[in-house]
Amino acid sequence: MTAPDHPILLCHDCGAPHALPPVSPGHRAECHRCGAVLRHFRTGGLGQAVALAIASTILFVTANLFPILTFELEGRAQTATLLSGSVALWDGGYEVLGVLVFFVLFLAPLAQVLGTLYVVMPLAAGRTAAPGAAWTFRTVARLRRWAMAEVFLLGLIVAYVKLSDLAELEPGASLAALVAFILVQVWGEASLSPFEVWERIAPQTRVTQAAAADPERLTACHDCHQVVAGSDGACPRCGARLHHRKPNSLPRGWALISAATILYIPANLLPIMTVVYFGAGQPDTILSGVEALIAAEMWPVALLVFFASITVPVLKLIGLAYLLWTVQRGSPKRQRDRTRLYRLIEGVGRWSMVDIFMISLLAALVQLGAIATIHAEIGAVAFAAVVIITMLASESFDPRLIWDAPPRRAQRQDSSMIDAHD
To answer: Transmembrane ranges (predicted)?
Structure first.
């Protein structure tokens, strides 16, 4: 039964209204229509989230203080820190790539953990929200998909495998700190309920409040998921601009995937890096790098790179085009499956950054003058652009459009408030 004091949410993936059930630790509320997770009922509480955020901050600082990897060849050694890759790309004339790696590897993870700490610490102590807490937590949520420490770790493994036959490699103290940071950060995110944080900042709209408004005019904030009547102005809780649906979702999506498709061609045809070994230069494309790994019988790594760098971008472009096409046709078929496809596309796209992180590490480590040098090439810029543009395309797509043209009977059923599945 729906109680009048239960908070109401509109599903972020299909728009169906739900009255959230009472808190049930260890469970989660799912959308009855598309299966999206509406709320996790965490057991750790805000105090645990604060402790893990402090631990993440310490580990992240430690991971940046010491070398992460040391490369030694012919008696000469070169060390690399987390920031060495972005510096090497900048010094090599690829400033845009250097800034991108700095943002997703350093700035976004640091801002995410510090922002979480700033917002959650006062709430865990039972005090009112800190000044600007709503804007800060909104920014933290937006940065989450752009913080790629775990993707960098995968790129480091690929770089290690590529160099292991060429020279001696020694993991540095920062590698352990980085692994620990990733694990603690994942633990921290799993222990923190964004709904609880937003509820502490300003209460979620209740069923009785929503019932007084026209159901057709109810709008959910894209950032904090507050439910308001109307779609004009700013969200009263977090200040984000309100939209009933993401504006220009279809034309923007088509424009972005068209640009990514065009860039995908030079990204695969042009070299992404050049390896100079004792004066002999050898440019590498993405595919030739995979072939080299296969020739060295490094099958698992070759499959990983092929999947992340070639298969994922292609499937993501095809998948997004399919979603845009079916929405444009107003198709009511397989809506739940198409929503699952959207979630998959949104989740895997960032992992294609593996090659960019690998190149940044190799460019930082292998700078031994006439003995051996590795530097980035223009193909890496095109490939990075494909990854970022496809991520922006999936972010601009509004999955609720999939459900905007259902059969009449389903429309009438979904217009009433339904308790979320537990």
So the answer is: 49-69, 96-125, 146-163, 175-192, 254-278, 298-327, 348-368, 374-393
Q: Residue 239: which region, alpha, beta or left (left: phi > 0; alpha: psi -120 to 50)?
A: left
- How many domains is the chain built from? 1
Is 107 inside a domain boundary?
A: yes
Residue ranges making up the domain that contains 20: 8-419
Task: Establish if 364 belongs to a structural domain.
Answer: yes
DSSP conformational letter for 222: T
Is there a domain that residue 3 lies in?
A: no
The token duo for 176 is: 């352990």
Interatomic CA distance for residues 89 and 138, integer angstroms: 31
Indicate the pTM of the whole model.
Answer: 0.88
Query: Model confidence over 20-54: pLDDT tens digits?
Result: 877 676 678 889 888 888 887 776 778 899 999 99
Angle at 48 between CA 44 and CA 52, to 5 degrees: 130
**Residue 116 to residue 118: CA distance in whole angstroms:** 5
Q: Tell me the β-bridge partners of 18.
A: 9, 418
Structure-block tokens of residue 351: 């992992």
Residue 1, in any domain of the structure: no
Are 134 and 239 spatial neighbours (Cβ–Cβ below 8 Å)? Answer: yes
